[in-house]
Amino acid sequence: MNMSLPLSLNDTSSISYVLAREFEVLSKKHRAGWLLRGVPVGKCETVWEHSRDVGLLGAEYAQRYHPQLNPFLVFAMGVIHDIGETRIPDYTPHDGVSREEKFRQEHTAVQDIFSGVEKGQEYINLWLEFEERKTATARYVKEWDQLQMVMQASRYRAAGFNGMEEFYESARPKIVSAELVELFDRLVK
Predict the structure, then answer these.
(1) What is the pLDDT of residue 22?
(2) What is the second-level CATH architecture of the domain 15-187?
């Protein structure tokens, strides 16, 4: 009896291989904003930890509060929303890179990551959907992108790091769902 798995982590054209490879890179890349605030590498959140939390928390809350949203799509969009950062820097507003230039670089990176991969165009489209924010799913994931940053800033503030208010101020106008506004308010007290 042949018990081979339907997918292979050695098949460089499989989506599983590509995602595992890219998530491994993101798991070693620390978030630039936290490093700029003096969080040492050993305590600094990685891009993967951020993306994972956006996907997991977003999916859980979507299922609980927004039955019109597909939690799987929220999860998938959340975990890949920063995947282009495997090829480009984790730009912060202090880097002076325009939104258009960041989008251009990240879009090129995402196309490179998923080109030649089975169902790769679907992942490119999912990333584009997030970037364009034209759907309810994309807007909700963007809210979680911001709220997760606030959650992490609150952890760092509690650990004695300064300068976290900037993150709260930049995120607050982008969080509009009632349950997330309530969570935001509790975090920043």
Answers:
(1) 96
(2) Orthogonal Bundle (1.10)
